[in-house]
Amino acid sequence: MRGIETASQLRDGTSRRGFLKASLAGTAFAASMHQLDILQSPALASELKRQQKHVILIWLAGGASQLETWDPKPGRATGGPFAAIQTNVTGVSISELLPKMSQRMHHSAIIRSLNTKNADHGGAAKIMETGRAVDQGIPCPDLGAMIAHELGRADSQVPDYVSMYSSTEGRRQGGSGFLGGRYAPMFLTEQMIPENTSRLESLSELDHSARSDLRSFLANRFREGRPDLSVDSHNSAYQRVRGIMSSANLFNIELEPMDVRARYGPTQFGEQCLIARRLVEAGVPFVKVARAWWDSHGQNFETHLELVTELDHVLATLIDDLEERGLLEHTLIATFGEFGRTPQINSSLGRDHFASAWSASLHGTGIRGGSVYGKTDADGLKVIDGEVNAADLFATIFQAIGIDYRKEYHVGARPVPITDFGGKPIRDILL
């Protein structure tokens, strides 16, 4: 997109660039990915994909309770009926509704001291999507778009950003803002296999391939002697469409062995997290899976008994699956929503919106396993140590996956930092 450029385009600010520098020592890195044509080497392409970083965001839409997940307060008036259990890391306890995750704490970091100040669904969601508490006066990209921009490859055959939100409550698409449509999410709602990506039944595979070859031949002939960005952009867009069509099977979990599908379970959330694993394994930088609806103004404890039990199983399965495939060391899983729930229990046995002292969790690459950052008071009413905001959380995520959190974009002459002003990574939970 014209008018937008990074402050330091040749700095090795991401893992892919660092890898290219090491692999192509002595070769000038002023050329683009297309000019280098690096993926013509299958071995190098395979290593590039293996080293690439990925993020899976599990979005707890509506606001999950920190007291029934990562910051329990048993025995207090605010604590509710559930106990705390010891994890496999000495001195760290979490809700008894997370028994499987309690045995995977060595892969995890808990942040118990978020204070994001806004407890309105729409405004809070915007803060936690973009990492920005104040309207910038321009359409800002969300976390997925920024990570897609930084970690996506120009010649990738798979989408850079996939977002799944099947529920109707609180549905939000997110967006790429000033980064442009190239980094907008592939947004899946009604079905998990993208629409309009399959070949017409009336067209044979041979004819389909022949048409593509003819189109490439004519496009390359037209391009000769016409060094024009619009021509290159058109060809690139066509190749991406072809790539997305060829990657449609990534969304089809029926291609997974039955025992793998059974591990994740039959729920829609489990199936979507299995798709997320398939996508990052294929090289997709950012996948968002939304699980709704956590907005438990009434019957909070029944709601969380169901939803946290499911989260515990699916998140633990996803971590194990990624680890077994050698992907966890390159993948960061984050779980959070727009805010938490009130420590006070209302007359409907519910918890209301609460943004003053709530929790998030991070798992996988770049994270110091077994770490807990921040502290709330005995009743969970306020942060008493290590307060962090959305910008700090985003800076931590960027740092964990090798993105310089101090980086700036430029919209025209205006610098826009990738992390909101003042945001700094939480060093205590990073490797």
Automatic annotation (TrEMBL):
<dbReference type="InterPro" id="IPR010869">
    <property type="entry name" value="DUF1501"/>
</dbReference>
<dbReference type="InterPro" id="IPR017850">
    <property type="entry name" value="Alkaline_phosphatase_core_sf"/>
</dbReference>
<dbReference type="Pfam" id="PF07394">
    <property type="entry name" value="DUF1501"/>
</dbReference>
<protein>
    <recommendedName>
        <fullName>DUF1501 domain-containing protein</fullName>
    </recommendedName>
</protein>
<dbReference type="InterPro" id="IPR006311">
    <property type="entry name" value="TAT_signal"/>
</dbReference>
